[in-house]
Hints:
homodimer, mainly alpha, Arc Repressor Mutant, subunit A, 2 domains, 9 helices, 71% helix, elongated
Amino acid sequence: MGRWEPDAQGRLRGAALELYAHQGFEQTTVAEIAARAGVTERTFFRYFADKREVLFAGSEQLQVETLAALAAAPASSSAIEAVAFGIERAVSVLADREYSRQRSKVIAANPSLQERELLKLAGLGAAMSAALQQRGVPPLTARLAAEAGVSVFTSAFDRWTADGESRTSVELVRESFAELRTVTAGL
Amino acid sequence: MGRWEPDAQGRLRGAALELYAHQGFEQTTVAEIAARAGVTERTFFRYFADKREVLFAGSEQLQVETLAALAAAPASSSAIEAVAFGIERAVSVLADREYSRQRSKVIAANPSLQERELLKLAGLGAAMSAALQQRGVPPLTARLAAEAGVSVFTSAFDRWTADGESRTSVELVRESFAELRTVTAGL
DNA sequence: GCTGCTGATGTCAGTTGCTGTCATCACTCT
DNA sequence: AGAGTGATGACAGCAACTGACATCAGCAGC
């Protein structure tokens, strides 16, 4: 299992983020990223499905951890409570705040990267919905609970990466959940 | 303002949907669509920003109508009530159920089309959130109310296009809103 | 120490989405 | 009839992505 230089994937990820942040996503060519990482363009596409995916390498793990926490929620939990279990775990997986900030900035600057992020989040929502249904939650209930959880996650995450925010991610998640409850009480 | 044959845009939209539905999105080339519509590939890109956008031509109008309805909600409405006004209007704009069914099928079959749809929906959510903030609703409240509205919209729309569903779209929206309220009451 | 296997990488050719540029055409107005 | 205008065609070109095949490093067995 030898390689010429170890961790080609890690070098590609680092090179891509630097170039995207420094000169913009569209202005960066895959050949540039590969060159900076010391490999060829073809090798880039062996590690990542496309030019965007390089920014979303850790997303499977986030989903796995979220689902595990959701599955570990007490059997007596309501659907939205089980989702809250999962989301609190998801947000505590994100450790490096400065890295998240930089990555978010790059994504926010390019619609096609936003699309990919939205797809990942939709996948997380669908997976949570499926997990809820396996707990016996009806489909519509499961879907609305899961998507509400994703909204809470993103709103808390965005505030967590905002400048001047000192609260922990879990605190922000709880605040978003509380606000969601207040919002829907207005119906 | 003359043209060789009128409604090139309409012909391109029809040709694209047919080909996407019949042989798949990725198996269809832009040159094929253009040829079927009787124009060149270059003309396709004059009407649509990219190969995916041809399926999302009516989305701006949907957003405009939704925002207008939201703005017309009584001043005494809560944030989520104002959103409900907008969403009920949005769903009643979708007239042709069979067309929606076919289009949804094509989109569901291809992740890159799902990405584009998610981006459009996120845009609708952001616009509703901005409209709510102009009504004096605080940012976090506005965002959660708007995204909840989008979830209600998509869940109702998907059920509306499901086989064997006979209820009207507005009925389904109201049911989704009621279910959302029940779900968040579990917190 | 040599050999053969395995998996990662390089090389290359090709398709397709998409863009810039400029000529050309149909139509309108005077 | 002639000039102007806006849509279209023709063409060249770049970059993302893919398939096929050669090649190389390192390991196992002899």
